[in-house]
Amino acid sequence: MMCLIIKLQLEMLSDVERGLRQNLGNPDAYDLALRGWALLLRKQPEATAQARVVALEALTLDPQSAFAWAILSRTYVSDIASRWIASAWRFARRVASAG
């Protein structure tokens, strides 16, 4: 019985791994997006700016990468939340007050 359970678990894991590989799109774009995520985790203005550049590079390789789009959008949110870009902050306040 235990062997059957282990066999089923291994089959499920291989199916999950195969599905992940098929849905990654461009692996180079995914790698760049992961690098962008690592940069974002530093929570520093320079690292956030680098993360934006890396996310844009990923999107040139794979414009459909939801992960890269999420990283890119997160860079802007970080800028606004941290007030690293004064113009972005002013724009966000204008939008909030308009609506």
Description:
This protein has 99 residues and is an all-alpha fold. The protein has one domain (26-98). Helix content is 84%, strand content 0%. Helix 2 packs parallel to helix 4, helix 3 (45-61) packs antiparallel against helix 4 (66-82) and helix 4 (66-82) packs across helix 5 (86-98). The termini are far apart. The mean pLDDT is 80.
User: Helical residue percent?
Assistant: over 70%
Mean pLDDT: 80
From the spread of the alpha carbons, the general shape counts as: elongated
| H/E element sequence | HHHHH
Number of strands: 0
Beta-strand content estimate: under 5%
Class inferred from helices and paired strands = mainly alpha
| Multimeric organization | single chain
Q: Kindly report how far apart the N and C termini lie.
A: 61 Å
Tell me the radius of gyration: 19 Å
The low-confidence parts are none
Tally of individual helices: 5
How many discrete domains? Answer: 1
The biggest beta sheet is recorded as:
none
